[in-house]
Amino acid sequence: MDALVKREAGPGLSLEAVPEPVVGINDVLIRVKRTAICGTDMHIYNWDAWAQKTIPVPMTVGHEFVGEIVEVGSNVIDFRPGQLVSGEGHVVCGRCRNCMAGRRHLCAHTSGIGVNRPGAFAEYVALPMSNVWEHKADIDLDVAALFDPLGNAVHTALQYDLLGEDVLITGAGPIGAMAAAVCRHAGARHVVITDMIDERLALAARLGATRTVNVNRETLADVQAELGMQEGFDVGLEMSGNGAALNDLIASMCHGGKVAMLGIPDENTALDWHTVIFNMLTLKGIYGREMYETWYKMSVMVESGLDIAPVITHRMDYRDYEAGFAAMNEGKASKVILTWDR
Ligand code: NAD
Ligand code: ZN
């Protein structure tokens, strides 16, 4: 089968013929229809310091996908060929305290599809049945391919009550933009989003942000005054991974404000701790998606009108993957879909 493979320790990926995955007794085999390129794939493609210490080579990459089940292992009774599914990209151990308590998103022994084990940028991918999420047959395939990053947005956004609240999102990358859509869907009042790339802010506005802020030209304090906000934002979602954005966010929260942090800042990022303490802010780190409450909420929100399709800026055949990775590296693309079904 065709697959996008990191063959050697160095930049780039190659399109290669590799053996089809082996299907274990607890696995399902999925014929991949659509995939999407994630920031993680860009780290691997560009072979940055994180990728160098994380990715064993050779490795088939990719973890955002939708496909159709074509075969199931002998232990699998809940799935059958023909079902349309995506996969949770974190494979957990199933045996640690958190896993046994049903808190699988807190497993300390997670391995990643397309990171530590063969991924989905391939004609076929095999997954444990416990990582499979079934879609309604009529879901838009491109949207279904985005459930992994949409799950990051949903997991983060739904940490706190949003109905009638004012939300600040720092970073209008694909995940921040989708989070804006989720916050509006969930009944927030103001959904203000920051970035320094106008194209990305415009996209976030299409998805549901009520006010966009280019931090190179405007301050959040001015925007709060313009919106007539008394104190500050009730809920903050950090989705840039940038330390300055994180501090902007902390400075813009109301007393008692609640912050969920998905973006991954530099390890030694300094924080204005006095504001955190005297204003009694709550800060919570977010990783991955809840298995499977986040997935349930995603399916239900998409069914009830949440539209994230505008986040897709490029669609192309997987054989044109170099153009897709180039568009991502340029910084203006949001989600790039690679099509595997012909
Ligand atoms: P992205 O890099 O595409 O988007 C980040 C955006 O933040 C960019 O558009 C950038 O211009 C903007 N930005 C940079 N500095 C800023 C500043 N000072 N103020 C405002 N905006 C600023 O990333 P993404 O794919 O949308 O993911 C968002 C973040 O979440 C990334 O940091 C990513 O690594 C992280 N992430 C974490 C998890 C997790 O499980 N914790 C999962 C996926 C992604
Ligand atoms: Zn575990």
Automatic annotation (TrEMBL):
Parts of the chain that traverse the membrane: none
UniProt-listed Enzyme Commission number(s): 1.1.1.103
Residues reported in the UniProt entry to bind NAD(+): I175, D195, R200, L262, G263, I264, I286, Y287
UniProt site positions, description: Important for catalytic activity for the proton relay mechanism but does not participate directly in the coordination of zinc atom: D148
Pfam families given in the database record: ADH_N (PF08240), ADH_zinc_N (PF00107)
Active-site residues, record numbering mapped to chain: T40, H43
Matching Gene3D superfamilies: Medium-chain alcohol dehydrogenases, catalytic domain (3.90.180.10), NAD(P)-binding Rossmann-like Domain (3.40.50.720)
Reactions mediated catalytically: L-threonine + NAD(+) = (2S)-2-amino-3-oxobutanoate + NADH + H(+)
Pathway connected to this protein: Amino-acid degradation; L-threonine degradation via oxydo-reductase pathway; glycine from L-threonine: step 1/2
Record note on cofactor: Binds 2 Zn(2+) ions per subunit.
A GO biological-process term: L-threonine catabolic process to glycine
Enzymatic class: oxidoreductase
Residue ranges of domain Alcohol dehydrogenase-like C-terminal in the record: 174-300
Keyword Transport tagged: no
Residues given in the record as Zn(2+) 2 binding sites: C93, C96, C99, C107
Domain Alcohol dehydrogenase-like N-terminal: 26-134
UniProt record similarity statement: Belongs to the zinc-containing alcohol dehydrogenase family.
HAMAP family to which the protein is assigned, alphabetical: Thr_dehydrog (MF_00627)
Protein name as annotated: L-threonine 3-dehydrogenase
Organismal lineage: Bacteria, Pseudomonadati, Pseudomonadota, Gammaproteobacteria, Cellvibrionales
Gene for this chain: tdh
